[in-house]
Model the fold of this input.
Amino acid sequence: MKRRYVTADVFTDRMFGGNPLAVVLDAEGLTTAQMQAIALEFNYSETTFVLPPRDSAHTAEVRIFTPRTEVPFAGHPNVGTAFLLARESGFSAAALGGEFVFEEAAGLVPVRLLRDGAVVAGAELRAPESLSRRTVISREVAAACLSLDPPDIAMQAHAPQIVSVGLPFLVVELASRDALRRSKPNIAAHSGLLPLDGADAVFAYWPAHEAAPASGETVLHARMYSPLDGIVEDPATGSACAATIALLAALDGGLAERAWRIHQGVDMGRPSLLLGRTLARAGAPAETYIGGRCVPVLEGTFAL
Done:
């Protein structure tokens, strides 16, 4: 049986930037083992599989696989899948409405289409869970995971800790842009610490306080490492960015609305731009959004 797939580069406005994603459009009838094998064959950070929704009020069921495992939620797979489905005739009615709702293991994920005039240019997701804060890690252990020295780990905003808005990550603030540039995964340290509280990846970031644009967005520079999952470095990690901005918004007392601009993938040659929003109620972030632009790249079929 021939099955169609399409790919896109996500969180970029140009081909060969951002984070590549493969989407299998007609995944009905595939077993979990087959989906995992296909994801390994593509060998992208994630591959998604589109299935009919269990509830007809929703757009589709979407299953997300890394090369090694299925995950309950992820950022660039949702943004890229919505962007690519909006180009498919079978989803034209939903695309006209401007919002998709995906059924995923973490819950329902609403995704709003972003347009340049009449053309769909990207998408923005709403995280399926509110912020959860889990185990706190020492700066020494965090530094070891990133092949850095303890003074490279900043402690002003928060200690290194596991946080999640649908998929958990160890989030680590760094003291300088140079520390971020020098960071690299230490597999032995990762193996000694992770998985922990469901997290098997480290998201390191540096807040560029002096680079705030006139728009008022808060600027972060980031890298994400997940060698235990076969991903040495990820070019753009929407779920980790969403968890991080939710944490930072909660720590600053929760402004009613904040905008975020996150640069990731720069140091690995695949520059990505993720745009975030946090909405707070009664001092606590109630909703977290991550979005960006996408570019279609490949389409084809495979027999299975």
